[in-house]
Amino acid sequence: MPGAAFFPDAKLNFAENLLKKTGPSDAIVFRGEDKVERRLSWNELHALTSRLQQLFLSLGVKKGDRIAAMMPNMPETVAAMLATASIGAVWSSCSPDFGEQGVLDRFGQIEPVVFVAPDGYWYNGKAIEVADKIAAVAAKLPTVRKVLIVDYLGTSTDVAATVEKAFALDEALSPFAAKPVNFERLPFAHPLYILFSSGTTGVPKCIVHSVGGTLIQHVKEERLHAGLLDGDRFFYFTTCGWMMWNWLVSGLASGATLLLYDGSPFYPDGNVLFDFADADKMTYFGTSAKFIDSVRKAGLRPIRTHDLSSVRTISSTGSPLSPEDFRFVYEGIKHDVHLASISGGTDIVSCFVLGVPTEPVWTGEIQGPGLGLAVDVWDDDGHPLRQEKGELVCTKAFPAMPIGFWNDPEGKKYHAAYFERFDNVWCHGDFAEWTAHGGLIIHGRSDATLNPGGVRIGTAEIYNQVEQMPEILEALCIGQDFDNDVRVVLFVRLAAGVELDAELEKRIRAKIRSGASPRHVPARIVAVTDIPRTKSGKITELAVRDMVHGRAIKNKEALANPEALELFRDLPQLAD
User: Fold this and answer.
1) Contacts of residue 545, Cβ cutoff 8 Å, sequence gap at least 6
2) Ramachandran class of 484: left when φ > 0, alpha when ψ lies in -120 to 50, beta otherwise
3) Of 20, 83, 502, 542, which sits 20 to 30 A from 457 (CA to CA)?
4) Domain 15-28+42-210 shares a fold with domain 449-574
């Protein structure tokens, strides 16, 4: 399966397919919290892409060179990606909230020739300055010829003056007038993006995705599974360090307007994204399972406070959406909407299982596999399972498979990541189950499944029970090696004013026993004040498991709140 070639004689350009549309209508609407609002027409997006293309060419950027961006989710980021792709260079991005080492762990591996960064960004109503971080990162990227500082806080000229080889983007673009963009036609398998694994178990893997594979997969998913139409208003809450950003910008290929939001989804309050949906007639509202759960737990009911008549689809990803939150979407956000829980990953810059607009939505289930993907669920011996839990696999090659990993010339790391478990079959690392309706349930990551008494249990099954309880804001579950077996340990972050006493522990255990099974009931329940998560908001079960077992945590830079890990060190509750 690695090495399968699709459309070997085809030539195309990714950016050309995203910039087919012209005219004065909105291509991008951008909100940076309540501080910045901007609109770019299709003609203005073409013009900005043209000027960036000319700038990159003047810096000697050529086919295959890497351009790295530590950027907020703003219009210049989209245009810089399009300009990169138009030349046949390779785009890679992360968000500006990454620490210095986290940025270097990523971009240091791929040797970029241009580094794009903002003068700062807004988060929770505060201006976050990043000049020192840019200077420190740029100093350790010897291949970078030019650092381009994008204006967001209004200080790009000042920041550029403090960084070697840096120019404010506006100044760097000043010699170039807009003209038609020149699109370099490239092989189907030419590299387009380098994405990075989360890095919570070591230095991030650099996953290389192709021009053609990314385009054909995204257009299939967005046109057919998401029902995206020309003129739709397409939103996904994401940062530039998550593959959902790459997925979102492909909406341009369908003629959709991109609605970009950068900042906290709860600033100034939990209504901000619904306000955006109202004001700009959003048709596709994409977010995370965690956001939906947080809205429910905050007691918000957008169904009563907002006119969401334009919204046809609400999409959820990042982690499994609980049955409780499925019900909340229909009861608390909108009655008549296509709720599409989707799952895939950075590994394929797309989805294995996602929404199917022609099929009913069943509580707690993802509707079906992606068109053209031979998705199945197998047991440990490689036999297909029906309505039993096993490994999510793809048994035939597909265009969105990575070209490979960066700096992996013999493909050993690539093969080990996906093809070691089953010969010539992609093993994705999700613990999954077919349903009676032909849909799927993702029970969590395979490497985070619990094995008490040798029976595999998905962590999502436990979260689905305990996170229904108003006393519990969120939970994290691990298997602790204990007494020659594995015991289930549940960590809970409690609502304000709640204490974990014997009565609450008893109710938690009863809820899990009745809603899941006796095997799911934790041996220990421990209250913690915070739960560590990645930059894209996913809880990090493996890092907590390592901390509990006294193992070294290899890459804390990948975490949004690494200080939370200390809460799990040497806990007396887990000593006996």
Assistant:
1) 448, 478, 479, 480
2) left
3) 502
4) no
Q: How high is the pLDDT of residue 358?
A: 95
Nearest-angstrom CA–CA distance, 128 and 119: 9
A 10 A CB-CB count for 395 gives 16
Considering the domain 449-574 in this protein, what is its CATH number?
Answer: 3.30.300.30
For domain 265-446, the question of CATH label 3.40.50.12780 is answered with yes
- pLDDT band at 202, cuts 50/70/90? low
Q: Is the pLDDT of residue 333 over 70?
A: yes
Strand order in the sheet with 389-394: 375-378, 389-394, 426-434, 440-445
Place of tokens 């440990």: 380
**Burial of residue 367, with CB atoms counted within 10 A of its CB: 0-12 exposed, 13-18 middle, 19 or more buried:** buried
Q: Which amino acid is at 49?
A: T
Tell me: pLDDT of 226 over 90.
Answer: yes
Tell me how far apart the alpha carbons of residues 398 and 372 are, in angstroms, rounded to a whole number. 8
What SS3 string covers 286-303? Answer: EEEHHHHHHHHHCCCCHH
Q: What is the pTM of this model?
A: 0.89
* Side-chain-side CA neighbours of residue 234 (13 Å): 26
Query: Cα(214)–Cα(89) distance, rounded to whole angstroms?
Result: 15
- Report the chain's mean pLDDT, rounded to a whole number: 94
pLDDT tens-digit readout, 414-467: 999 999 999 999 999 999 999 999 999 998 888 888 878 777 788 888 998 998
HEC profile of 352-406: EEECCCCCCCCCCCECEECCCCCEEEECCCCCECCCCEEEEEECCCCCCCCCEEC
- Please tell me the distance from the alpha carbon of residue 304 to that of residue 451, in angstroms, as a whole number: 44
Going by C-beta distance under 8 Å and a sequence separation of 6 or more, which residues neighbour residue 152? 32, 36, 72, 74, 118, 119, 120, 121, 122
R_g over Cα of the chain: 23
